[in-house]
C-alpha cells in the first residue's frame, strides 16, 4: 500500500507539473518581451514564469494572444525577478525553446509584493487568482490617489472599500460628499453573504462616523458652520470677479479693519457715493444671508480626530454654495495642518471635476487650494483622494500628483486620453483593456511598478451610491398609497375666490365693514372621459 500511495503521489505531481506548462518560447527574444507557442490553456494578462539560466525563475505576463488555423501565439512582457528585496529585469534575454509555466500564487505574491502587512489596505483579489491585493497605506496617504470610472462602473463602491480600510487604521478622514453617499458607512452590509465568504470579508459597521451639512435638509446631520474671520484676500476670492472701481471701493471700506465683519462692511459701503457699491453690497449681503459663517464655527479638532470619519454632506445644497464651503473648509484645514494644530488626515473629494476642473473649463473658488494641496499636502501630512467620472475635466496638475490610481471602466475617448496621459508605466495593452473592464474590476497602478487588474472585494458596510429605481413594479404599489402621514412644510395650494373684496363693495348697497376668510379643505380629482383627462 505504501508503494502504491507513493506512486500515486508522484504521478499526481507529474500531472500537476505538465498541466502548468503552457508552451515553449519561439523566435527572437529581448530583455523586455518574447513570444511562445501555446500548447495548453492560456489567457490574456495571465501571469507566467520562465526559468532563466542566470537569474532563476522570472515573472512575466501574457499581454496578447494571436490565433490562426494552425497555432496560438502568446506575446509576453517581462516583469522581473527579485534580488535583495528589489524587482529587477533580466539583462540577458531568454533562450529559445525554454518552457513557459503558469506562475504559482506564492511566486506572484512574492515578486509583486502583495503580502499582508499591518499597514496594508485589503482592496480585493488579483483578477483570476486567489491572491489578496494590499495597498501600502504609508505610501498612499502621503502620495495621493485618484479613483476614476464612468458613471455606474463602481468608483464610489471602490472608494467605500478603501475608506473602510483607512477607518480601521484609525486615520482621520474628511469626506467632501456632494451626493450623500457615504453616510451608509454607519450600517452593516447584510446583502453579499456568499461573495464575502469568497473574499474573506466580515460585515461590520462603524460608529465613529459624523455627518455635517444642512440640518434643514436632513435633521440627523450636525449643522456646519465656517469660521467668520475672513481675511481681505479670502473675501475677494469668494466674491465674483469685480471691476477696478469696485475693487477700489471694497478696499476703501476694509481699510480700517484687519478682519471682515459683514454688517460693518455693508455700513462702510453704504457711506460711499459711487453707484458701483450696490453690486458689491448685493454679493456681500448674499454671503451674510447664507448663515454659513459664524464666530462659533465647527471646531477643526472636532472634525479631525484619530479614528474619526467626518462627512461633509452637500446633498441638496446649491453648487455655488458648495464651492464656498469646500474652499473655506479645506483652506482652513490646510493652514491648521501646516501649524500642526490638527493631526495628519486624509481628504476625499467626490465628483472632483466640479471643484477642481481643468482650466480650459473655467476656475472655481476651490481650484487653487486643491492644486496647492495636491502639490504640497504630502509635506505636511495631508493625503488626498480625488474621485471622478470625468477624468478629462479634472485639473491635469491635480491628476498628475496622484501616483496611485484605481481605474475602473472608462469608455469616453476624451476621458481615456486623460487617463493614458496621467498614468505612468501603462502599457498599450492595458490601455486597451480599460474600455472592456467588467463592473467591479479595477486597474490599479502605483501599488507596485506594474499595473494590476484587481477584483474589488465586497464592502463590509452598506453602499449608499445605488441609483433610484424609477420604474414601478407590481410589488411596490402606488407611491401615494405608501404615505401614512402627509406633512407639507410650505404653503398649501389654494383655490382663491373669483370675487374679490372690491367686487363685493361694488355689488353691495351697504358698506361692508369686514370680510372673514373661510378655508374649506378639498380634494383634487383626475377624471377620465373616454380618452380625455380633466
Characterization of the model:
By secondary structure, the protein is of the alpha/beta class. It is 29% helix and 22% strand. The protein contains 16 helices and 23 strands. The protein has helices at residues 2-20, 105-111, 137-143, 155-168, 193-199, 232-238, 244-254, 262-270, 277-289, 300-303, 319-338, 367-376, 396-400, 413-422, 428-434, 501-507, and strands at residues 21-26, 33-38, 47-52, 56-67, 72-83, 86-88, 99-102, 120-126, 132-136, 145-148, 173-177, 209-213, 222-223, 226-227, 293-294, 309-313, 345-349, 382-388, 404-407, 441-445, 452-456, 528-529, 532-533. Strands 9-8-21-20-19-10-18-17-11-16-12-13 form a twelve-stranded mixed sheet. The longest helix is centred in the middle third of the chain and has 20 residues, at 319-338. The chain is elongated. The chain starts with a helix and ends with a strand. 34% of the residues are buried. Residues 13-18 have low confidence and may be disordered.
Proportion of residues in helical segments = 25-40%
Low-confidence parts: 13-18
Give the helix/strand class. Answer: alpha/beta
> Strands across the major sheet, in which order?
9-8-21-20-19-10-18-17-11-16-12-13
- Counted by DSSP, the helix tally is 16
Which descriptor suits the 3D outline?
elongated
Q: Please give the radius of gyration in angstroms.
A: 32 Å
**Number of strand elements:** 23
What share of residues are in beta strands?
15-25%
Q: N-to-C terminal Cα separation, in Å?
A: 91 Å
User: Major sheet: size, sense and barrel closure?
Assistant: 12 strands, mixed
What is the mean predicted local confidence, pLDDT?
83
Amino acid at each position: 500500500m505504501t508503494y502504491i500511495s507513493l506512486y500515486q503521489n508522484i504521478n499526481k505531481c507529474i500531472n500537476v507539473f505538465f498541466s502548468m506548462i503552457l508552451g515553449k518560447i519561439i523566435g527572437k527574444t529581448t530583455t523586455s518581451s518574447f513570444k511562445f507557442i501555446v500548447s495548453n490553456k492560456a489567457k490574456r494578462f495571465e501571469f507566467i514564469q520562465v526559468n532563466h539560466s542566470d537569474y532563476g525563475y522570472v515573472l512575466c505576463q501574457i499581454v496578447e494572444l494571436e490565433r490562426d488555423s494552425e497555432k496560438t501565439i502568446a506575446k509576453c512582457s517581462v516583469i522581473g525577478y527579485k534580488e535583495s528585496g528589489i524587482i529587477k529585469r533580466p539583462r540577458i534575454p531568454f533562450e529559445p525553446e525554454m518552457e513557459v509555466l503558469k506562475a504559482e500564487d506564492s511566486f506572484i505574491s512574492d515578486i509583486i509584493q502583495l503580502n499582508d502587512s499591518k499597514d496594508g489596505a485589503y482592496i480585493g483579489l488579483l483578477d483570476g487568482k486567489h491572491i489578496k491585493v494590499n495597498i501600502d497605506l504609508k505610501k498612499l496617504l502621503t502620495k495621493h490617489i485618484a479613483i476614476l470610472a464612468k458613471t455606474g462602473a463602481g468608483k464610489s463602491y471602490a472608494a467605500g472599500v478603501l475608506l473602510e480600510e483607512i477607518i480601521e487604521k484609525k486615520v482621520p478622514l474628511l469626506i467632501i460628499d456632494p451626493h450623500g453617499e457615504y453616510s451608509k458607512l454607519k450600517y452593516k452590509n447584510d446583502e453579499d453573504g456568499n461573495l464575502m465568504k469568497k473574499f474573506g470579508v466580515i460585515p461590520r459597521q462603524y460608529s465613529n462616523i459624523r455627518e455635517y451639512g444642512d440640518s434643514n435638509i436632513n435633521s440627523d446631520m450636525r449643522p456646519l458652520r465656517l469660521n467668520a474671520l475672513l481675511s481681505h484676500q479670502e473675501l475677494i476670492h469668494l466674491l465674483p470677479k469685480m471691476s477696478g472701481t469696485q475693487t477700489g471701493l471694497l478696499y476703501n471700506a476694509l481699510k480700517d479693519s484687519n478682519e471682515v465683519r459683514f454688517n460693518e462692511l455693508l455700513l462702510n459701503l453704504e457711506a460711499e457715493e459711487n453707484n458701483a457699491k450696490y453690486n458689491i453690497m448685493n454679493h456681500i449681503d448674499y454671503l451674510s444671508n447664507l448663515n454659513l459663517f459664524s464666530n462659533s464655527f465647527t471646531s477643526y479638532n472636532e472634525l479631525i480626530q484619530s479614528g474619526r470619519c467626518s462627512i461633509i454632506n452637500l446633498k441638496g445644497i446649491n453648487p455655488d454654495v458648495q464651492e464656498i464651503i469646500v474652499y473655506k473648509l479645506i483652506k482652513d484645514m490646510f493652514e491648521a495642518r501646516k501649524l500642526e494644530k490638527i493631526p495628519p488626515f486624509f481628504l476625499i473629494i467626490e465628483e472632483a471635476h466640479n471643484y477642481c476642473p481643468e482650466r480650459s473649463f473655467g476656475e472655481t473658488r476651490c481650484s487653487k487650494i486643491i492644486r496647492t494641496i495636491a502639490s504640497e499636502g504630502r509635506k505636511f501630512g495631508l493625503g488626498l483622494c480625488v474621485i471622478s467620472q470625468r477624468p478629462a475635466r479634472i485639473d491635469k496638475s491635480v491628476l498628475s500628483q496622484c501616483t496611485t490610481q484605481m481605474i475602473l471602466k472608462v469608455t469616453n475617448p476624451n476621458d481615456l486620453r486623460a487617463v493614458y496621459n496621467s498614468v505612468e508605466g501603462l502599457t498599450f495593452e492595458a490601455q486597451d483593456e480599460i474600455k472592456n473592464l467588467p463592473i467591479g474590476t479595477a486597474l490599479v497602478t502605483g501599488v507596485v511598478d506594474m499595473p494590476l487588474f484587481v477584483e474589488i472585494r465586497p464592502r463590509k458596510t452598506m453602499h449608499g451610491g445605488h441609483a433610484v429605481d424609477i420604474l414601478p413594479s407590481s410589488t411596490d404599489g402606488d407611491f401615494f398609497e405608501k404615505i401614512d402621514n402627509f406633512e407639507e412644510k410650505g404653503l398649501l395650494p389654494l383655490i382663491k375666490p373669483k370675487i374679490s373684496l372690491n367686487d363685493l363693495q361694488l355689488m353691495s348697497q351697504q358698506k361692508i365693514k369686514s370680510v372673514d376668510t373661510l378655508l374649506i379643505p378639498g380634494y383634487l380629482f383626475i377624471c377620465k372621459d373616454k380618452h380625455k383627462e380633466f
